[in-house]
Amino acid sequence: MGILILSTVERTFVGERKLRDDRLAVLIDADNATASLIEPLMEEIAKYGTANVKRIYGDWTKPNLGGWKEKLHIYAIQPIQQYSYTSGKNATDSALIIDAMDLLYTGHFDGFCLVSSDSDFTRLACRLRESGLFVYGFGRKQTPIPFQKACDKFTYTEILVGHEVSEAIAESKNGQVQSSKNEHFKKAADLEKENPSSRTAKLQQDKKLINLLQRAYEAAAGEDGLANLGAFGSQINKISPSFDSRNYEYSKLGALIRDVGLFEIQEVPSEHNPVVKVVYVKLKG
């Protein structure tokens, strides 16, 4: 399952995302999404703006979309009927793409949300970015890399419910889902109790993460070796759209940077408001 959000706002990311009030259009591919994740996904979308249009595409004559019916009512999502005209061809994708372009040309929206982990939407993401729109992507971890890279920001849906949920679990009984959530909270509590040096050692074993942080730091740091945490987070996401501190069980980027042990963290009073602290990171010598 995936969601793609596209916005005309400035192309910057801070380590901790700010709430936005952009006008968003949410378009969902029901054939490639699970209804059980819609609540945390809509909450995540709300951080970026207001969903003024919410449409979901699929063949509603098929029983496999039955799980969506209650969700459509709760979240006021408009179902769009799309028959499968030919076996092996996905008419739903085409209908969604056509609507996305129609809505784009109205100029009435600050952003779009595309719900799918299907690589067929890679070109759509690229085309919308070519129009100057910001692309936030949401999808499963197995979403094809080209689709992830086509987004400015890609968030795995697994972390939205706090654990690596599979489609089978997501569609299973509520008790099973709740059990998985409880397991996540237990993991989070265990992480808090874990020795800081142990957490650092574990993070430093992730060579891909370390390489990403070093490359982003080199690009964001000034002559004095300091990198604003917001600019640092922005550069991380430019290099790796799928990066999210929650992938490593950290709710905030600053906490992850602190525990990785590579950087010094400095808090400097803001020039405009001394009460506000601006966070900088510097690579340890």
Keywords:
2 domains; single chain; 11 helices; three-stranded antiparallel beta sheet; seven-stranded mixed beta sheet; Rossmann fold; 285 residues; Nucleotidyltransferase, domain 5; alpha/beta; 39% helix
How are helices and strands ordered from N to C? Answer: EEHEHEHEHEHEHHHHEHHEE
Strand order of the largest sheet: 4-3-2-5-1-6-7
Rounded radius of gyration (Å): 20 Å
Report the principal-axis shape: elongated
Q: Cα distance, first to last residue? A: 43 Å
DSSP strand tally: 10
- Please give the CATH architecture of the largest domain: 3-Layer(aba) Sandwich
The largest sheet, given as strand count, sense and whether it forms a barrel, is: 7 strands, mixed
Q: State mean pLDDT (0 to 100 scale).
A: 80
- The proportion of residues forming helix, as a percent range, comes to 25-40%
Number of helical stretches of at least 4 residues:
11
Query: What is the CATH class name of the largest domain?
Result: Alpha Beta
Structural class: alpha/beta
Tell me the number of structural domains: 2
Unreliable residue stretches: 7-17, 163-181
Protein name: HTH OST-type domain-containing protein
Pfam family, one: NYN
Domain HTH OST-type: 205-280
GO molecular function: RNA nuclease activity
Describe what this molecule looks like in 3D.
The strands form two sheets. Strands 4-3-2-5-1-6-7 form a seven-stranded mixed sheet, with helices on both faces. Helices cover 39% and strands 21% of the residues. β9 and β10 (277-283) form a beta hairpin. The protein folds into two domains: 3-161, Rossmann fold (3-Layer(aba) Sandwich), CATH 3.40.50.1010; 196-283, 2-Layer Sandwich (Nucleotidyltransferase, domain 5). It has helices at 38-46, 68-74, 91-106, 122-130, 145-149, 167-170, 174-193, 196-204, 207-220, 229-239, 253-260, and strands at residues 3-7, 22-29, 49-58, 78-81, 111-115, 134-139, 153-156, 226-228, 263-269, 277-283. With 285 residues, the chain is of the alpha/beta class. Residues 7-17 and 163-181 have low confidence and may be disordered.
